[in-house]
Each structure stands twice: as structure tokens, then as C-alpha cells.
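Hi all, posting the design record for the shared folder.

TITLE: backbone redesign
STEP: 1 of 1
STRUCTURE INPUT:
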């Protein structure tokens, strides 16, 4: 008899044992004395008892589940705080009675409640003569705004690092400190031409990046555009 022929009955018995254990998962509960004699190879070498290995696996699974749960709790807390800050910002904008207050509210709230290091608004439509000299109002035909034409006409927020010329035209004296930024077009559904552009700058390089979600920024742009609408002339 060859070695291969001798091994075939052993493999068949192993299959039968495995099948039996699978069909009777309570076997070791009824024969606990066998657990003391069973060993499993360990990744670090040597051997451990079956119950020790099971306990180790269960502990690793519990630790991973605890980490996942903590991440979910942390994200839920951050989202709740974000919703509260958005709610406060929207209420403050709705309470603003004039254009000057709207502009100041956007800038101050984004700096204080959303930890923005720089906030710039550029509006492409005229206001009354009293506010026409404010830096927020610019002529869309100005050459410097050509660097943002693709972003504005695209109608969606864009995040990441800006070119030096873009930084200078938006943030002026603060440009050298801005490592990342978000550009948010201010659009209205009934208007093909945007009302303007909101730029939010951060000193942190990782604060705004191309892979981040922009849903909140898009909603923010929609709210600001609608609040601005009654204060701007055609």
C-alpha cells in the first residue's frame, strides 16, 4: 500500500469529523475536557489552546467594534454641532435687515463659528450708491476675475490650494498665510449669471482639499444667494 493510499482514509475521516462538528456546534460544550488537549498554531509561533485562541479572536473583534462605534459617535457629534452652527447662521442672516448687515454677518459668523481664517465675498451686481464703494462689489469684466471664471460658471464649490495670483486677488494682505481655500459660487436657480463668489480661506493645508464633500458649502452658497437677492439691483 502506498503512502497516498494510506492517507486517503485519514482525509475521509477528517471530512466526517469536520462535518459532524459543523452540524453539532455544541459538541465541545458537552465535552469540555477535550478543550484542554486541543491546540491551534499561533501566528507568533508556539501553540495555544482552542479556547484561548477563541477568546483572543473575540477580544480583537470587540476592540474593532468598539473603535467603529466610537468613530460613529464622534461623527454624529460633529454633524450635530455643524447643524447647530448652520442653523444659527441661517437665523442670523434672516434677521439681517439690510445688505451691510448681511455681508458683515457672513464674514463674522464664518470666522467665529466655522473657524475660517479669511472670508471674502465678491458680488458682481451693483448695490445702492451708499455701498458701491465697498470691496465686495466688483466688475465681472475685470481681468483679475478671469482666474475664477471656470469655477463661477461651473456653479459648484471647489476646494483645494489656489494659485498665488488667485490668493492675492482674493485675500490681499492675508494671501501669504492661506494654505487652502473653498470657492463657492453664489447662484440663483432663475439666473444664469451668478450673484458672486464666496471664498473661505484657512491656514491649514488639509482644511480644504479636492476630495472633501462640498454639500454643506453648496447649501451655504444657496442660502447666502437668496438672502442677498432682495438687496441687489438688476
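Okay, here is what came back for every position:
SEQUENCE:
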Amino acid at each position: 500500500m502506498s503512502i497516498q493510499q494510506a492517507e486517503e482514509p485519514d482525509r475521509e475521516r477528517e471530512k466526517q469529523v469536520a462535518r459532524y462538528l459543523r452540524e453539532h456546534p455544541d459538541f465541545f460544550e458537552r465535552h469540555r475536557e477535550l478543550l484542554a488537549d486541543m491546540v491551534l498554531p499561533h501566528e507568533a509561533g508556539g501553540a495555544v489552546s482552542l479556547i484561548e485562541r477563541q477568546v483572543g479572536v473575540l477580544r480583537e473583534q470587540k476592540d474593532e467594534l468598539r473603535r467603529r462605534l466610537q468613530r460613529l459617535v464622534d461623527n454624529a457629534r460633529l454633524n450635530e454641532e455643524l447643524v447647530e452652527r448652520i442653523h444659527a447662521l441661517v437665523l442670523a442672516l434672516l434677521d439681517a435687515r439690510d445688505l451691510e448687515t448681511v455681508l458683515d454677518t457672513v464674514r463674522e459668523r464664518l470666522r467665529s463659528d466655522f473657524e475660517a481664517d479669511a472670508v471674502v465675498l465678491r458680488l458682481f451686481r451693483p448695490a445702492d450708491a451708499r455701498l458701491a464703494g465697498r470691496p465686495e462689489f466688483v466688475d465681472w469684466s475685470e481681468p483679475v476675475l478671469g482666474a475664477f471664471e471656470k469655477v463661477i460658471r461651473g456653479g459648484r464649490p471647489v476646494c483645494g490650494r489656489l494659485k498665488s495670483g488667485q490668493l492675492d486677488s482674493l485675500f490681499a494682505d492675508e494671501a501669504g498665510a492661506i494654505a487652502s481655500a473653498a470657492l463657492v459660487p453664489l447662484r440663483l436657480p432663475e439666473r444664469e449669471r451668478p450673484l458672486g463668489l464666496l471664498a473661505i480661506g484657512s491656514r491649514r493645508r488639509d482644511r480644504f482639499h479636492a476630495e472633501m464633500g462640498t454639500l454643506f458649502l453648496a447649501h451655504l452658497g444657496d442660502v447666502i444667494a437668496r438672502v442677498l437677492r432682495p438687496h441687489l439691483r438688476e
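COMMENT: Residues 3-62 form one domain.
Let me know if anyone wants the other runs.
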